[in-house]
User: Fold this.
Amino acid sequence: MELEKKQYQIDFSKIRDRVRVFAPATVANMICGFDILGFAVDEPGDEVAMYRVAEPGVRIRSIAGDDGRLPLDADKNTVSACVKMLLAHLGLENELGVEIELTKHMPIGSGLGSSSASTVAGLFAINNLLGDPLSKAELMPFCVEGERIACGHGHADNVAPALMGGITLIRGYSPLDVIDLPVPNELYAGIVFPQVDVPTRDARQLIKQKVLLKDAVTQWGNIAGLIAGLYESDYKLISRSMQDVLIEPTRAILIPEFYEMKRIALSAGALSFGISGSGPSVVAITRGRDVAERATAEIQQHLTGCDIDSLKYVSAVNIGGPKVLG
Amino acid sequence: MELEKKQYQIDFSKIRDRVRVFAPATVANMICGFDILGFAVDEPGDEVAMYRVAEPGVRIRSIAGDDGRLPLDADKNTVSACVKMLLAHLGLENELGVEIELTKHMPIGSGLGSSSASTVAGLFAINNLLGDPLSKAELMPFCVEGERIACGHGHADNVAPALMGGITLIRGYSPLDVIDLPVPNELYAGIVFPQVDVPTRDARQLIKQKVLLKDAVTQWGNIAGLIAGLYESDYKLISRSMQDVLIEPTRAILIPEFYEMKRIALSAGALSFGISGSGPSVVAITRGRDVAERATAEIQQHLTGCDIDSLKYVSAVNIGGPKVLG
Assistant:
């Protein structure tokens, strides 16, 4: 990823003293669109409070909601590392002092774009603190680079929807080509996070590097159908199209009770059901909040019966991405 | 393909004495959408004249424009075989007498959906002769079955756009799911048919049955971008998206001067350039007629310099599909 060489003018009189920002969790792949589609949800998400201080440098004041799993070292923490990257790019790393409070309102390693939410919250917050010198489109490559710092790869299917909100298509990476897709207004997501550990890297390594062309054709027929369905607000077409014949059969193995949860969600009336990102979170995509509430409640009840703890979230597709809380 | 069991009411008083029908050529795949996308063009196409006669049975009276390559035997000819299939389905094969004149205005084995145009012309004509008992949607499975009779496979990426007109997506086959896509009104096709022989079956057999997942991801990112571009009438997005990284590298080997023709088309301002169906016809997709005229003229001039005869066609995307000529 080549970062923009453009010089940004920073007006020091406009730098704010503090800002508090929310950035949303995201559902990468959107069932059938492996590595190219993703959408943001209204909850859960991450919260970053950022303070301008006299002493130059970037420091983490505190992290809440992470059970002590995230590093406080500013070079290792995703939020501070991304802030440092942007400040370095702007030539401000030795001039500005910034302290950060990170509050995780979402589980780590859940397949909900936890690191992307932190990346986007951090970059959106520092840009806002500086008086918004960069547009969202200009922030995007920094978010992708932030994801690379955090995860070791520069996929954009979480950071793009986290930054833009709504449903995004990453058409390609050379150059980065992010397209906003329309969001049918009754589309809801019912997310369940079974509290079992599925590291993203393991989930990726399971996936075969070669696939049958005929399966790829089925998959891209579904992807094309989903895009048309979103433009037409055709929920039946969306439902028929959101099927993953390539990735789900492999990744589902890592997720306990996956096919029973799928059966429950579809019986409850979900348009589709599948894995969020690389899992283990699963998502029921529904028309309307009621179906999402019912599907997640029934899934959670089933998991409880299997002695599996879980968290659930029901949300409309988030519109607008990160927001300034105050 | 399961054909509809529904009974159609045929009103014998409405059966016409004769009908003449045009059905359009089609560009399958639309560069990046292997086996799922296709569009129809205003020219070339096939013409079928159909006559009701007293003696029951289906017969071919004449075929023009085929250089004697097509069979006159009513069981072997695509048009008559499709007509017989539909009449048999309607229980009319021993009651009705039909004679057919077929005029090919397009080359056979050119990658322009020649057999599909004949299939659609024949079925559209007999349906019209009978007083249009079947809707287009009801005719579609018969067209796919006709393609199977003609080519040994039931792909729909030629018959679907030939019957529906415009740009069509075949989302899937179980059941057949054909979706009309929007047609940006400045979209043109400049087609060149280099007169070399590339049988469809050979062209298909060249294609590898397994592909790299990363290439499939690139391809479906492009497909998704193309669908969004069509809905947005975003010609730049359409241009960026219409790239085929999977099939073209293999099939282009069979087409003389392919990469030079591509260079010429893109230099002339085409949005994209690629193989029509399985070739050897190639297509420049352009914004406006002028670019399509210029690209095809320059390509043809180049082929002439290489001692390769060729035909060219410039056309808007066809809207509406087959039409009754009189």
About this structure: The radius of gyration of chain A is 20 Å.
